[in-house]
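Re: that chain you flagged

S.,

Sorry for the slow reply, it's been a week of failed gels. I finally had a moment to sit down with the sequence you sent. For the record, here it is as I used it:
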Amino acid sequence: AKLIPKYFDTACCRVVLGAHEQVKLLLQYHWGVVFFTGSNRVGRLVAEQAARTLSPTCMELGGKCPCYIDCENENEWWDWQMVANRIIWARTLNGGQTCAAVDYLVVPEAIVRKLLPYLVKAVKSQFGDDAYTSELGRIVKAKPH
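Prediction finished late last night. Pasting the structure tokens below so you have them in one place:
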């Protein structure tokens, strides 16, 4: 929030910190475009408010993001640990709360047994043996689920 006024013209772009009440107040005004990323439930509320002022919206509402692994041409060059490390990183970045967080894997059945130990190793190497005491981000409210 501090960097926006440093690099952007504040007549064109502003950051308002807040939650539900601040958003309701802001959406009482007409905007060129309202961008929203979040849940379907909150997106519906934002869309309803924006419609009252005929403000157009652009929304990304919690879609699913698969990770597809095409193993048809697997060879000795494949680095399964690197694949697993990147999958776990993509899943857990920012506590898993990103639009592009991997939600599930699509892999040939024959690869599952090969990939699983690498995924386990990736989790342990990134977060330690005990997930309950690691620095893995936690969701502390039930609503995001």
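What I noticed first: The beta strands are 34-37, 57-60, 66-68, 104-106.

Talk soon,
D.
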